[in-house]
Specification:
The chain is an alpha+beta fold. It contains 8 helices and 7 strands. Helix 2 crosses helix 5, helix 2 crosses helix 6 and helix 4 crosses helix 5. The chain is globular, with a radius of gyration of 18 Å.
């Protein structure tokens, strides 16, 4: 299996180290569904089966959990494809963002995600954070104070945001995300975990669109393997 390497973010070496696909993502958005004649994803190359199934990060439906980081330029490149894919996401699937907690400033960016979620501003700031970091270059060192300054530019109360980043609730969420990544063997971003059973990463020949094609394949597999409801259960 092609292994992706952690690589420096291009605009600032100190803000670096996310998983880099073997080739740059295409400039045009590729389809997020495989063509009818496309080969099935390859076990051991496009995805791996976890040795022991792990508890899901959330509750309900078929879980698609992306372990990502705001400091990862490849996660930023992947995000537009995710936005397109989610518009036609199967009704029996659920997307979860799980920020990577790998230490150092990775943890502060993870705290930013959780703080935005707690304050109810995640939907309006998620894509904006990627743009602020990699396009507008609002982050130079990645300190909590600098991150709060960036969120203030998104219309979020700076003091409240900074305080929430350091709160007990965010620390608890941080520990949960760390344990999820450890249990599922995630060591690079972006990585997708399907239902606590499969680990999906990008490969040279399929790229980010291929990751989502693999997600579709594994969702269908989980759906087929799910116990069928009896007529009595279906009528409830």
């Amino acid at each position: 299996m092609l292994r992706r390497l952690l690589a420096p973010v291009l605009f600032l070496a100190s803000l670096a180290a996310c998983a880099q696909p073997a080739t740059p993502p295409p400039t045009a958005k590729p389809a997020t569904r495989p063509a009818a004649a496309a080969p099935a994803p390859r076990l051991g190359t496009d995805y791996e089966v976890l040795p022991v199934p792990q508890p899901k990060y959330g509750v309900g439906r078929i879980e698609v959990a992306e372990v990502f980081s705001y400091r990862c330029i490849h996660c930023a490149e992947f995000q537009p494809l995710i936005n397109t894919w989610k518009k036609t996401m199967p009704a029996d699937a659920r997307w979860e963002y799980v920020p990577a907690v790998f230490g150092g400033s990775w943890d502060d960016f993870a705290r930013a995600y959780f703080a935005a979620d707690i304050l109810g501003v995640h939907k309006k700031t998620h894509d904006a954070a990627f743009k602020g970091i990699f396009v507008d270059e609002l982050i130079k060192t990645g300190t909590p104070e600098e991150i709060a300054d960036m969120y203030a530019k998104f219309g979020v109360d700076r003091a409240k945001f900074l305080g929430t980043m350091q709160s007990f609730g965010v620390t608890a969420k941080l520990n949960r995300a760390r344990q999820f990544a450890l249990r599922t063997g995630v060591s690079a971003t972006p990585t997708i975990i399907i239902n606590g059973k499969y680990r999906v990463t990008a490969t040279r020949d399929r790229g980010f669109a291929g990751m989502l094609a693999t997600v579709d394949h594994l969702i269908a597999r989980e759906r087929a393997a799910a116990p069928k409801a009896t007529p009595a259960q279906a009528s409830k």
